[in-house]
Amino acid sequence: MAKTPARRPKFSAEAFLQSPGLAKRVIRHEAGDVIFSQGDPCDSVFYLQSGTVKLSVLSKEGREAVVAILEAGHFFGEGCLAGQPVRMGNAIAASASVVMRVKKSRMVRLLHTERAFSDRFIAHMLARNIRIEEDLIDQLFNSSERRLARTLLLLARYGKADKPVRVVPHLSQATLAEMIGTTRSRVNFFMKKFQRLGFIDYSDGLKVNSSLLTVVLHQ
After folding, report:
1. Integer CA distances (angstroms), 134 to 49, 79, 138, 194, in order
2. How large is the angle between the packed helices 184-196 and 173-180, nearest 10 degrees?
3. Whole-angstrom Cα distance, residue 187 to residue 189?
4. Rounded to the nearest 10 degrees, what angle do helices 144-155 and 115-141 cross at?
5. Measured between alpha carbons, how far is 150 from 168 in angstroms, rounded to an integer?
6. Domains, the chain, ranges and CATH?
7. Rounded distance, CA 106 to CA 112, Å?
8. With 80 as the cut, is the pLDDT of residue 26 above it?
9. CA 154 to chain centre
10. What span, in angstroms and rounded, lies between the C-alpha atoms of 71 and 150?
């Protein structure tokens, strides 16, 4: 009887990027540290090893729009690979974070020579694109209450089989308001409502209960 081929271990971008000899720079940031600013030279790709990072864009009038809150395992700053000469937005550590920086030239070589790494990076970009489309639809068609509920569920990793539901990273109500396109007072109103209905719990950090999904599905 023929032997079943041994399954290859799942590729780990984290382990690969930490391998000796790979040209990179590991930087530790405290909450509030600026990783890069809108208009900075776009010459590197970043990989978030731990912590959370806020991506935002600032308008000419000084209004800030939060584009995403990233967690460990995410790439960001990849616009340099598409020819962007300067950063189109800001990246700020939302909590204490460890970030790996890989120069554009090195990243391009890795994508050309390391198939497993290239596959992982492409999968990341496709997932990011799907998320952006979903966010746009959410912004266009859903109420601010539903957008807030969806954002909280995403931050808590709801629905991800490989990642347990967790306490939501500490984010101010002002940041949540920027993420969903409403005012801080509206976020405060909805958060109190969610707590009263048992959808969220503040007893040990902000915990999101799966019952919050009813707001997204049945509003």
Report:
1. 25, 20, 6, 23
2. 110
3. 5
4. 160
5. 13
6. 13-132 (2.60.120.10), 142-218 (1.10.10.10)
7. 10
8. yes
9. 10
10. 17
The token pair that represents 86 in the structure block: 């300067």
**HEC profile for the chain?**
CCCCCCCCCCCCHHHHHCCCCCCCEEEEECCCCEEECCCCECCEEEEEEECEEEEEEECCCCCEEEEEEEECCCEECHHHHHCCCECCCEEEECCCEEEEEEEHHHHHHHHHHCHHHHHHHHHHHHHHHHHHHHHHHHHHHCCHHHHHHHHHHHHCCCCCCCCCCCEECCCCHHHHHHHHCCCHHHHHHHHHHHHHCCCEECECEEEECHHHHHHHHHC
Residue 84 and residue 70: Cα distance in Å, rounded?
21
d(CA 155, CA 94): 13
CA R_g for the chain: 19
Q: Indicate whether 1 pLDDT > 60.
A: no
138, 182 in Cβ contact below 8 A?
no
Check residue 20 and give its pLDDT.
Answer: 65
Please list, in sequence order, all residues whose beta carbon lies within 8 angstroms of the beta carbon of residue 169, skipping any fewer than 6 positions away: 52, 69, 71, 94, 95, 155
Name the amino acid, one letter, at 90: N
pLDDT digits (tens, 9 = 90+) for 47-97: 999 999 999 998 888 888 888 889 888 999 999 998 999 999 999 998 899
